[in-house]
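tool_log.txt
---
The assistant was asked to compare two proteins side by side. It first ran the structure predictor on the initial sequence, then on the second. Raw inputs and outputs are pasted verbatim so the downstream comparison step can read them without reformatting.
(1)
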Amino acid sequence: MTGKTIGLLIVMAAYLAVMIIVGAIYSKRNKDVTDFYLGGRKLGPIVTAMSAEASDMSSWLLMGLPGVAYLSGCAEAGWTAIGLAIGTYLNWLIVAKRLRRYTHKANNSITLPAFFSNRYRDKSHALLAIAAIMIVIFFVPYTASGFAACGKLFATLFHVPYLPAMIISAVVIVLYTTLGGFLAASMTDLIQSIIMTIALVIVVLYGIYAAGGLDAVAANANSMDGYLSMMFSHDAASNTAVPYKGLTIASTLAWGLGYFGMPHILLRFMGIEDENKLTTSRRIASVWVVISMFIAIFIGIIGSAMTKAGAIEVLEGSSQAETLIVRTAMLLSNHGFLAIVLAGLILAGILASTMSTSDSQLLAAASCVSENLITECFGMKLSKKASMLMARLTVVVIAVIGVFIAKNPDSSVFRIVSFAWAGFGATFGPIMLFSLFWKRTNRNGALAGMIVGGVMVFVWKYLIAPLGGIWSIYELLPAFICSAVAIVAVSLLTAPPSKEIVEEFESV
């Protein structure tokens, strides 16, 4: 092992050690499952903002988005980013405060399934069970994508087998998550968002230098048909511009709809100590998201110029393109001690982006299994100590399943995340909005919307989209619409909610 490799390894090991230490520190603050899953609703505005966005962006920001921009230019990456920026802002603006207030009012609900069940007074536990099952179905592959990103990182860096590298990464994430719970995940997310930001800045500055300057970057981008256009996508195989049609733009913008149904993000709204501080959180979060996504796309454009300049080899396909930042860091590490430290920070940033999402997803999925399914649906009465043990065991079990799914090193992080994102957005987005803002919604409508949204994601993805043409749009958009229609139709065709439910709705 070379001195350079050892240096990179030391920087990354130091980062991992800090994460575990944070987990150990916050483990002492978890007195019950409310603390473990929601931090006792004690988050400050800065931690709330950055934790929400760090858990949102994941490895998709540092690997997936630059990879898409590298291969095809600005259209897909740009419209996706615009949709996400709008969705982020609206989620903070219209959902955050009311959800924080309503979940507290509705029997102090600490999970989304519990909120839906309490909101509609569902004594059958059908809402609770279906919501919990849906969360597990879509979170397991989402978590797996994070583990896969870590595995790719270490395998590319240190020329080690992918599988053990991925497993070791998963073990670290599980370790600090099971120790510290929600508070540890939130605090590590704050640290990770800072490291991600530093990584993005370093990559941009060095990437421009390696490509031969801004003029070289601009000249390369302009030489490829449709590469810088928002209305065309660049086809590298034929070196031609392919029209990026209005329907495709609409479906890509639909990424923003996903925010309304993301459990790991919505939990941050529920965990803030003071709902009035959400305005500060919204401003911080929105600015960071816009800037970070712009930089990530720009990195993809810079990466193409680096290939043209001969600094890095041609990256073919999404699997290779998603390693762009890793390869840039390795190139940087050839320039001495300080460069090795900076490269180590970049690589730690990739780890951070992955871990900040995986820890939140593990907690959200585990809370659904242990709290909603085992404790509430199946009626198991557990002591505080037993509940905490169950919560931690559930995190481990879900992680093991995620590791099994992530064993294929050729999977695309961007594509896995896009499917899981659609699943959550369509399953929970419409029902979240209707639950918060339409008092006529009833339990039957909520259940119908949840099932229709989740099922339609699979139907559209695997049965309708393959037909091509106008049908090949992002599955989130049609599934979201179908879910909303189902909620309205079934709610109006069945009995209205009780006076008690309406009065609670109006008091929030």
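(2)
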Amino acid sequence: MNKYILAIDQGTTSSRALLFDDSFRIVGVGQHEFTQYFPDNGWVEHDAEEIWDTTLASCHDAIEAAGRHLGTPIDANDIAGIGITNQRETTVVWDRASGKPIANAIVWQDRRTADYCDGLRAAGHEPLVQEATGLLIDAYFSASKLRWLLDNVPAARTRADAGELAFGTVDSFLLWRLTGGKSHFTDATNASRTQLFNIASQEWDTRLLDLFTIPASLLPQVKDCASDFGKTDPSLFGAAIPIAGMIGDQQAAAFGQCCFEAGMAKSTYGTGCFLLMNTGADIVRSEHRLLSTVAYRLNGAASYAIEGSIFMAGATMQWIRDGLRLIDDAAASEALAIETGDDLSVYLVPAFTGLGAPYWDADARGALYGLTRDTGIKEVVTAGLLSVCYQTRDLVEAIRGDGATLDSLRVDGGMANNDWVMQKLADVLGCDVQRPTLVETTALGAAFMASLQLGLVDSLDSLAQGWQLDSSWQQVQTEEWRTRHYSGWLDAVARTRSSRPSKP
């Protein structure tokens, strides 16, 4: 009898579950969107209970869908294990006794702690934070969000000091719920995004706990990405299923793309855009405001990556669809872009929650530039798509500035299915763009981790041999075209920034 792997992919706008067979083919999918809360300017929250409910429903839907697809029911005894991947940095605090969150989760996009982070930088703390964590001080990461919850939820700090509360990124919260409160763990990749974890020593850093005033009792134990995380409560699926893999979503996508060697890079186009380049056993310290992070940890050994993060990618098109109502669905954007042509001089800078790497400007706000009387729907939509390409180039320029060479880029995520965007990405970057046959690389990375732990695969080499190319794109535009359009983008960003540097 085949043994399946259930991959939980808990994202920013939806919870998904995918069931993979022993050849890593998808046999069942479940997905449920959940509510986005915007209680104040720059604030973004999720209801962690809704995250749990949609995750559990997605798992059941995926199992049932697999049964229909295969023509025979699938039950818990057919599932060898579970891998979890998740939106990173999003911060949840819950009651250890009841498992109930004490407040809404504060999402990675949330900017409410930007002023506090500015104060830490002004006080000269960034060198310590960057040296220990590989991260810049920013509201993006979990530490300042956790401190805010402790200081603003009634009695939270007192209860935390008494050991009554638990903290985690979404992976830890789901694990707690899946195991009936028996497991309070995270993995090294998610820990590396909290701004409390020393990526060299692979331990929680007491200096940072003191800086952010975080009690150590809140924190989960940090494990390898492939590890024994416990078993599901039998009441959830009818039998106890081992939870054998855990990895943050962007690292999962890089792992699912088989970026196992130093110099290999992937870019995921989901709600945001996240470009990771594997740097092997070396922690590369960026001089261009990129992040150093843990790519994965196996058998106690960490592999590292350099990362650039863009806050708005798919979320920009979601805004164009739902906010402006210019299109009915994201798929319609490709036809409009084709109709627009290649010489668009309209620029959309999607700084709705500030700008991410390499600018890290929390006070920048979105803007449209270059509008003329004949600017219409198709131009605005196309500008939204191109903003993703230009922001990716910002990251690539920073990587190149740090001395790395990027000859090709593996892509995944929903927007990677847009062939027009992929061609423009190759044109704007001046490098090859490669899309695999399976673009569900985030879930695949979680499935890979669980399979390694369970002994269903024996090596990274065997996984790499299974990577298959679907399509690739090479630049077709001239260097003059690339320079002219990117210069227009840089000018638009400079106009948008809260301060105007001469270059990124």
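---
observation on (2): The first strand starts at residue 4 and ends at 10. The mean pLDDT is 92.
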